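Margin note from the TA: students keep mixing up input and output lines. Inputs are the sequences; the output is the structure of the whole complex. Example:
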Amino acid sequence: MITEALYQNYLTLLLDGNRRECARIVQQLLGRDIEIKTLYADLFQKSLYEVGRLWEFNRISVAKEHLVTAITEGLLNLVYPRLFERAVSDSGNDRKVVISCAANEFHQVGGKMVADIFELNGWDSQFLGANTPVDQMLSHIQEEKPDLVGLSVSVYFNMPALKAGLAAIRGNFQHLDIFVGGQAFNWGGTEITKQYSGTAYVPSLDRLTPLIAA
Amino acid sequence: MKETREQAAYSYVTRQSQDLLFVLSGDGRILEANESARSLTGCRENDTAFSDLVVDFTGTFNIADMVKAPGGPHLLNIKTAAGLPQSYDFYFEQIQNRTLGFGRLDAREMAHMQKQLLSLNQELNNLTRRLHKQNAELARLNQEKNQFLGMAAHDLRKPIGLILTYSEFLLDEAARDLDTEHQNFLSTIHNRSLFMKNLVDDFLDVSAIEARRFDLDLQPADMPKVLSQSLEINRLQAQKKGVMLEVDMGACPGPAVIDAAKIEQAVTNLVCNAIDYSREGDTVRVRLFCRQDHLIFSVEDNGPGMSRQDMEKLFTPFGRTRTKKTAGEKSTGLGLLITHKIITAHNGTLHVESAPDRGTTITVKLPVIKQFETPTE
């Protein structure tokens, strides 16, 4: 449903900061009853990864990268009525996941999309947002007792903060399954999962399926 | 070499720098502006006064004072071509009979603001996500509640019907064997059962509306006849209360394609409501006429009327709560909601005119005339 031409058009509009036209494309796709996972993976994730790459290679400014992210987050809001309607009407599986961004990580849209995919598959997904302090994350886990925790990191320089988060979770909840992901791993760092037992690396939205089904 | 460096610096400042540069005449006109200043403000050299670019709420801006004042920067809000004013730190230098004005953005402040805006936007988006999630959950709970309400109402209908029928039998056949007190007991049982039956019927209707199972059985029907049948029940009610029911029915060119039973229910509800809010001796006026493509039906009373605030809640469940019915009549509070649904399901509209102490007129407009001529089967 998302052709290369449509994607390129969307990406151009996104980089131009043309929020309305981007919204029109998304509304049209929703009107054609596109699968939400496809919309997330083939339009939102793909374009954000490309924009992130352009920023990392100094092709666009940080302000533009922030603008693109803010537009994409706004577009997610267009999907939510349908996403949650479906998520709630399908019988839930009584499983809970907490998704959080590493401390100092201000990019949250990737983590939020992951939370949405879980929600769509019957999980109760709780998204804690960007730059979540470790103590706040721990107390939320303590309170909600999730089956799974996901940590997102978009900027490679925030890897130490991710590590600190993992250490804190493992130190307090020895048997809790954890997964990590985000664009930061494009620069390496997947070996981090070997340092903490029960921790998996998920490279993309498509690869969430085994975790969701587990 | 020195000249080349100066030229390079001058070229950078005039063409590429994001800072603003203005060269001003003695009377404050802009003689020259760098590319950044021109594109930001839309100013024209030799034409625009610098003071015209400054947002000056107090009317005290004076360029000469700023030039004389030692140090700097001077915080000035500059009007931009994009519409939003932008704050710049300005430094002024007097060179011979010209004034140079340099404006620069506070990068730290901008970075701080950017971070705050991003955080606020993220928080707002996260709250929106939670709101959507909770809305979906509430919609599900509401659906469950409606299912439960529908089941309960359905199960109650039969026993209430039996109580109503048997109390009617007893009133008809055994009342003469009872003393007055026991007859009153029986009447109360009968009246309360009737109220409960109406309540249960309304609940079933609302439950169907909420579950979006409100189907119409559209058939050609004679609208004046439907109206007359509806008014049978209302005539008795009006008579008991001493309210005059004035009916004015114009001619209609043929049958209307409607769900007659539901339209009858809507008419009865509206007229019943008008009588409920009328005092003894008042008149309720009912009119039916055809105009162009529409069938128009109105009910007018001289009751206590409603404020605008009450009117807004009129077609919501239990919406009409402020004004009291004149004889303390009981109602389910769902009648007007059901009426509204019946009319809108027929692609019709309801218009309410009312004011406190000036009565109420509800006008129903049904687009049914076009269908008169073609009862095609």
